[in-house]
Design goal:
By secondary structure, this protein is mostly helical. The protein has eight helices and no strands. The termini are far apart. The mean pLDDT is 77.
C-alpha cells in the first residue's frame, strides 16, 4: 500500500514537472512572438518559411501514385505532429492595426486562381487574400490534430478522407507560398 502511494506521488511529481516545463516553453514562445511581431519583414519571412516547410513535409506524405493513406499510417502521425502553424496563428490573431495583417490583406491579394493547385474544382473556395487561405490551413490542421489524438477508434476519423483533406491543405499552402514568395520581403528567398 505504501509502495503504491509512493509510486502515485512520484507520478504526480513527474506530471507537475512536465506541466511546468510546458508552461515555461509557452511563456518563452509568447515572449519570442511579441518581440518578433514588431518586425513586419521578419514575420512575413517566417510565415513564408513555415509555409515552405509544411509544403515539403506534405510532399513527403503524399506520394505520386495517390496511394491511399490511412489514419493508422505512421506517416500521418509524423505529419500531424510536425506540421507547424505557430506563425500562421500569430499572423491570424493580428488585427487591422498591425502592419503584417494590413500588408497581407492588401498586398497579399489573390489575382489569378487559374494556376493554383485544385483551382479547377468547383468546390474550391475563392479567396480575396492570403489570410483566408492561411485560415483554412490553420483550422483544418487543428481539427486533424484533435481527431488524430482521439485515436484510431474515433468514428469521425473513418469518415474523413485522408488524401482528399491533405490535397485541400496542399492547394491552400501552394497558393500562400506563391503569394508570400512574391512579396518584397521574400524576393531573396523565393
Amino acid at each position: 500500500m505504501l509502495k503504491e502511494a509512493l509510486d502515485t506521488a512520484g507520478l504526480a511529481a513527474g506530471t507537475a514537472g512536465a506541466a511546468l516545463d510546458t508552461i515555461g516553453l509557452i511563456a518563452s514562445r509568447i515572449e519570442k512572438w511579441n518581440s518578433v511581431r514588431r518586425e513586419t519583414s521578419s514575420v512575413i519571412r517566417l510565415l513564408y518559411l513555415e509555409v515552405c516547410k509544411d509544403l515539403d513535409l506534405l510532399a513527403v506524405l503524399i506520394d505520386a501514385r495517390d496511394r491511399e493513406v490511412g489514419w493508422s499510417d505512421p506517416r500521418i502521425r509524423f505529419f500531424i505532429s510536425n506540421f507547424e502553424t505557430g506563425v500562421m496563428e500569430m499572423v491570424l490573431m493580428g488585427n487591422e492595426k498591425e502592419d503584417v495583417y494590413r500588408k497581407l490583406s492588401s498586398k497579399g491579394r489573390i489575382k489569378n486562381l487559374a494556376d493554383m493547385v485544385g483551382a479547377r474544382e468547383r468546390s474550391m473556395q475563392k479567396y480575396e487574400n492570403v489570410l483566408q487561405a492561411l485560415r483554412f490551413v490553420y483550422v483544418k490542421m487543428d481539427i486533424l490534430r484533435k481527431l488524430a489524438l482521439a485515436g484510431d477508434e474515433n468514428d469521425l476519423l473513418k469518415r474523413v478522407k485522408v488524401i482528399e483533406r491533405l490535397r485541400n491543405i496542399e492547394a491552400r499552402l501552394a497558393l500562400a507560398k506563391r503569394i508570400l514568395g512574391g512579396l518584397e520581403e521574400n524576393k531573396a528567398l523565393s
